[in-house]
């Protein structure tokens, strides 16, 4: 028996900002799962900034998406047929074949998740890759210490909002964020417990941050002028966890670097980039701590939800424009 389904393929590689013309919806027929496989009906899929880099034909930490082939990414789905007793029909699982309505996946490549305790979508947000990224960046990369003052850019996104909340629970004395609207700033300060936040569209970000520094830790999701501003406002021996640089993902020309790099010497600063997949050894620790924080109501996530595979590309493009608050998700 076959299952008729649909997937999003990469039709052409974007130059600069992606457009809907770079993508194509394709109908496919999937066979029954073989031994050790499961057939999933996806219920949620994630769109994430890192996916933009995979649309380029360039060497990186993960292979580029192939032209004429389906995109992939984090997803949660229900098992509708199973060739492995360990993953029964009806189970809800986390896996890596998003951008499609159904998928046949090796059973060893899925993780059964508990949807009695938290909604399934949380495993793509605060309890998923974004949450783990925040935890790794703070604890291992920035080596957050009791009393540190923390600055995070992209603070109203899935990673940034988790960074701010976790930093406080891990002992930060102050947490300051940068976001792109007054509404996002209000969410950070009024609901998530940030001590302060700035709307970077209100003026030069360095000037906006001046009243709130100096900082001991900067968690960078943006790059560009935010990185330059953070360098200026870090205290001696400040640490930067470089997670992303969304400000330049769609640039077609080389982006100038920060003009104040000499401060790395005079302030004795440290910058370390990281990829979360290199730190899988922290996954169990993260799940234990973050699961407890979520259960206690101390770690919360907001979701921006778009419905239907037909609008998945719209969700991705809106994410790249900063149209999300919290985690951008597609409900299938």
Automatic annotation (TrEMBL):
Keywords: Oxidoreductase. CDD domains: PGDH. Gene3D superfamilies: Medium-chain alcohol dehydrogenases, catalytic domain, NAD(P)-binding Rossmann-like Domain. It comes from the Bacteria. One of its GO terms (molecular function) is oxidoreductase activity, acting on the CH-CH group of donors, NAD or NADP as acceptor. The keyword Glycoprotein does not apply. Residues 18-330 form the Enoyl reductase (ER) domain. InterPro entries: ADH-like_C, ADH_N_2, ER, GroES-like_sf, MDR_fam, NAD(P)-bd_dom_sf. This is Enoyl reductase (ER) domain-containing protein.
